[in-house]
Amino acid sequence: MYEIKDKVFLVTGGASGIGAGIVRTVLEHGAKHVVALDIDVIQGKSLEKELNDKHGKNRAKFVECDITTQLQNAFDIATKEYGYIDVVINNAGIMNDSPSVYEKEIAVNVTALITSTLKAFEWMRKDRGGKGGTIINISSIVGLMQTPLLPIYSATKSAVLQFSNCFGMEPHFKSFGVRVVTVCFGSTDTSLLDPQKVGGFIKDIDENIMIGIKKLPLQSVQSAIEGLLTAYINGNSGSTWLVTSNRPAEEITENVKNAYKTLSQGVL
């Protein structure tokens, strides 16, 4: 069992949607401080004021941050302000495969997530003087299935799943004391599903993408947050959790391991 109380959290994509919900909820559960990283200054500053007015001065801090280029500065600000980061939640994401956006999608969903994980790891690792900590990386149900829609987005979430599972494996956790947990969200009622933000690799399939998305059970932001916190409190390093359809969080670590056992048949 891992505690929320008195921990310092950092959340990417923390100004709106699931990220803002996480920021609010961990403070309500007794987190000592929380840092929200986002490019949306208006919503970020508004959230910071709301939470400090409610919970006390300097409990929440917003840092304007494009995570593809400014992560080091954001981590420096957070650690200078609060001294330590106990939990990093890599929540920021883009779902748009269009030719003008897909490179940014990969940069945000994969490269920045890996960079943030490595920076958090270097800060937390016990063999270099850190106190340990937790990193939660957000994958998706499309990292667990195959679909002709949004192949680039699906690839980024598959990459998150594989990276996080392997990084969090027991030899690493035992040596360094940094726990890595993967959460696969189902379709969630946020602006990520706004038709203006979603795009296909060719324009002709945009309509099919939205039709496909609308067929998926839609969960509330609160349900997603509750599932993530269940994974945080209970998850072992290297574990994977499914949070979808307004159901309680379900650990699917063995499903993922068994799937890779099947995929690896004949490899060695």
TrEMBL record:
GO terms for cellular component: cytoplasm. Its EC number is 1.1.1.141, 1.1.1.232. The keyword Ion transport does not apply. InterPro entries: NAD(P)-bd_dom_sf (IPR036291), Sc_DH/Rdtase_CS (IPR020904), SDR_fam (IPR002347). SUPFAM superfamilies: NAD(P)-binding Rossmann-fold domains. Pfam families: adh_short (PF00106). GO terms for molecular function: 15-hydroxyicosatetraenoate dehydrogenase activity; 15-hydroxyprostaglandin dehydrogenase (NAD+) activity. Coiled coil: none annotated. It catalyses: resolvin D1 + NAD(+) = 8-oxoresolvin D1 + NADH + H(+); prostaglandin E2 + NAD(+) = 15-oxoprostaglandin E2 + NADH + H(+); prostaglandin A1 + NAD(+) = 15-oxo-prostaglandin A1 + NADH + H(+); 15-oxo-(5S,6R)-dihydroxy-(7E,9E,11Z)-eicosatrienoate + NADH + H(+) = (5S,6R,15S)-trihydroxy-(7E,9E,11Z)-eicosatrienoate + NAD(+). Keywords: Oxidoreductase. Belongs to the short-chain dehydrogenases/reductases (SDR) family. Catalyzes the NAD-dependent dehydrogenation (oxidation) of a broad array of hydroxylated polyunsaturated fatty acids (mainly eicosanoids and docosanoids, including prostaglandins, lipoxins and resolvins), yielding their corresponding keto (oxo) metabolites. Decreases the levels of the pro-proliferative prostaglandins such as prostaglandin E2 (whose activity is increased in cancer because of an increase in the expression of cyclooxygenase 2) and generates oxo-fatty acid products that can profoundly influence cell function by abrogating pro-inflammatory cytokine expression. This is 15-hydroxyprostaglandin dehydrogenase [NAD(+)].
